[in-house]
Q: What sequence folds into this?
C-alpha cells in the first residue's frame, strides 16, 4: 500500500481495503476518542438539524401521540453526544446504540448512563462491535440513525449495510444517515487528528451513486442534501423511508 500523508485526498480506482481495516479503525478511535469528540463538537449543527427532521416524522412527546413506543438503532454512536442523548430525551424512545470502539462506548456509558441511574437507564442498550456483524429480527426498529459512521465501511459493505437496515426497519420506518458526497473507492490517512495514532479509512459511492443505491434497496428518498461541513468536506445527508406494505 502506497504511503499517504494527511494531505492526500486521492482515492484509488482499483482499491482493496486492508484486511485488518476494522481492527485498525477500532484501535484509532480507541486512541483518539476524546480528541475526536472535542474536535467534532463544533459540527453538531448539521447533526441536530437532520435529527430534528427525523424526529418531526416520528411520534414524539411533543406530537399528538406521545405514548407510542419508538425503537431506534444508532450505528456508530460514538460518545453519544449529542445524538443518542437527544433521542433519549424523548421518554417514549428506546435506543440501541452500537459502536466499534470500546473507548467511545465507555464515554457514552458515562454520559448517558449516570450513577445513580437516570430516567434513560432502561431505554438504552449499548452494543460494541462492527455494525455489519449486528443481527436483529426483521422489522425491529422504527428508525435507524448513522452519522459519520457508515463512511468508515468499505463501500461494498455500505450496500450490504443498507440491505440489513431495510430488513431491520418496520414497514414505514425511517433511516437517517450521511455518506461521502465525493466518490471514494477508499481513502486512507495515516495521521487523522493525531500524529501517531490516527490511521483512518473512509469510502463512498458519491452523491448520485449513494442515492441510487438507497433507492435500489427499496427505500424512498425523502430528503437528499449535499452539505459542506466545517471541515471543508461535503457530506450527503439522506432521510429515507421504507414503504408501508
Ligand atoms: C466519525 S465518528 C462519528 C460518531 C458519532 N456518530 C458522531 O456523529 O459524532 C465514527 C464512529 O463510528 C464508529 N465506527 C467506525 N467503524 C465502525 C463499524 N464498522 N461499526 C460500528 N461503528 C463503527 C467509530 O468507532 C466512531 O465512534
A:
Amino acid at each position: 500500500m502506497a504511503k499517504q500523508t494527511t494531505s492526500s485526498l486521492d482515492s484509488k480506482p482499483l482499491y482493496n481495503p486492508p484486511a485488518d481495516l476494522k481492527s485498525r479503525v477500532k484501535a484509532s478511535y480507541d486512541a483518539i476518542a476524546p480528541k475526536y469528540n472535542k474536535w467534532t463538537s463544533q459540527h453538531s449543527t448539521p447533526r441536530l438539524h437532520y435529527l430534528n427532521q427525523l424526529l418531526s416524522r416520528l411520534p414524539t412527546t411533543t406530537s399528538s401521540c406521545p405514548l407510542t413506543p419508538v425503537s431506534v438503532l444508532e450505528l456508530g454512536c460514538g460518545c453519544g453526544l449529542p445524538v443518542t442523548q437527544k433521542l433519549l430525551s424523548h421518554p417514549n424512545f428506546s435506543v440501541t446504540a452500537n459502536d466499534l470502539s470500546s473507548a467511545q462506548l465507555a464515554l457514552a456509558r458515562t454520559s448517558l448512563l449516570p450513577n445513580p441511574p437516570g430516567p434513560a437507564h432502561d431505554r438504552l442498550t449499548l452494543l460494541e462491535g462492527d455494525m455489519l456483524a449486528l443481527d436483529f429480527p426483521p422489522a425491529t426498529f422504527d428508525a435507524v440513525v448513522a452519522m459519520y459512521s457508515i463512511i468508515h465501511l468499505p463501500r461494498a459493505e455500505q450496500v450490504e449495510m443498507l440491505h440489513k437496515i431495510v430488513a431491520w426497519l418496520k414497514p414505514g420506518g425511517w433511516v437517517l444517515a450521511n455518506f461521502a458526497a465525493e466518490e471514494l473507492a477508499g481513502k486512507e490517512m495515516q495521521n487523522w487528528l493525531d500524529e501517531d495514532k490516527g490511521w483512518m479509512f473512509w469510502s463512498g459511492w458519491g452523491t448520485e451513486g449513494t442515492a441510487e443505491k438507497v433507492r435500489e434497496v427499496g427505500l424512498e428518498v425523502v430528503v437528499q442534501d449535499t452539505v459542506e461541513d466545517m471541515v471543508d468536506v461535503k457530506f450527503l445527508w439522506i432521510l429515507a423511508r421504507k414503504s408501508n406494505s
